[in-house]
UniProtKB/TrEMBL annotation:
Name of the protein in its database record: Uncharacterized protein
Region (Disordered): 1-24
Length: 37
């Protein structure tokens, strides 16, 4: 649920931030497929 802010341009993970930026994008796309095309 920490990536909820990503939809608003905020990157505040409630857990340890992923070392790989791509991992963050992959997870974000799974959570917000319609917002991050």
């Amino acid at each position: 649920m920490g990536l909820r802010g990503a939809a608003h341009g905020e990157v505040k993970p409630d857990t340890v931030p992923p070392r790989d930026p791509q991992a963050h994008l992959r997870e974000a796309r799974q959570r917000f497929p319609a917002l991050l095309l």
